[in-house]
Amino acid sequence: MASLNSSEFTATAAAESSIPQTNGEFQTLKALLVSSAHLIHDTYSGFIAPLIPTLIERFSLMKVEASFFLFLYQGVSILQPVIGHWADRVNLRKIALIGPAVTGIFLSLLGTAPSYPIALLYCLLAGFSSASMHAILPALVGTYSGRSVGKGMSFWMVGGELGVMFGPMIMTAMVATRSLHVSAWFMAGGIAISLILNYLMRNEPYVIVNNKTSHSIPAKELRIVMLPLGCIVLLRALMRTAAEIYLPVFLLEKGAGVWLAGISISILQGFGVLGVVLGGFANDRFGYKPVLSGSLVLSGLGMLAFVFTTGAARIASLAVLGTASMMMLPIGMAIAQENFPENRSLANGIYLAMVFAINALVGVLTGFLYDQIGGQWTYTIGGLVVLLALPFVFLLPKREKKYTITHEES
Questions:
Q1: Does 13 score more than 80 pLDDT?
Q2: SS3 265
Q3: Are 336 and 225 in contact, with CB atoms under 8 Å apart?
């Protein structure tokens, strides 16, 4: 890959790239349109956690066995760099835009799966469609973001977080009313949005890196950015997977009702939407180091407060945890795309593959710890370990405006 501040690249790319020219302006409607696919898709992702207590009971599972639902769904995302690298050179947008349909079909059927292996298969197949969508469409949003990549990633992430907020509400209603047999009808939403978006975007130019000017990412430059980011993601993962996978289980064990346990994920993700918005906009205004540092500290303290409080204080701490822990994701995506503007989809795919793969693996560890030492200690350890990620924030390369590629420059 050429130097990130190479004027030769920006001049050549302007002449030969198929990226639409936007003079660096943020294209709000187009960013919202693409992000809507993320919203619908991740609504189905939000079905998994509320179903885990039911699936544990139906199939007589240990918690570590239940962790494999999300392990398979998220673990497939290790393929995202391959998909992203391919998408930088071939138009794969139509494949990405059928993601909501495919994921919707299989996760709508998850609650009525006839056996544990079939339920795992549904999660695996949905994981493939999820990996394709998450590798390709964020880079498209990035091309619509002009100079405000952090803002664009916030749009994208807000869509996903809203989906993961609504999903548990919908599935909790099904579980609480014993109406899982009608959940299959929910797949209609994913099929509809895929058809609509494919139609509306049929003539939209696609971002393709011209083979004559494209470059690979040197391992040294990749390590400088991705290694510290990976360490941060790893040390955050125990806290995040405990909250995402086992929050309903933990609250049920503490005596909460089915409704409160089920919608707890929605509370967490609802405040996660706020965190995503704050993270993206604060990244553009203040830079990522102070924002990432604050996110890690507040999320760790929020987790510890959640464990050792009750009632309204526990709900308030869940709000802090959701807001702070999700501030990191749009910042990480912006860092990846700003530092590797010639390979946006590849860099984005590497980052998201890292996030999903680490969370998938650590999710299994979280289930093992939960079985061995219980939820109280598992959550406590997660809240403490995330604080160890702070030094890695300062190992990330200094942010420079010249790293940010815009359509005018490209």
A1: no
A2: helix
A3: yes
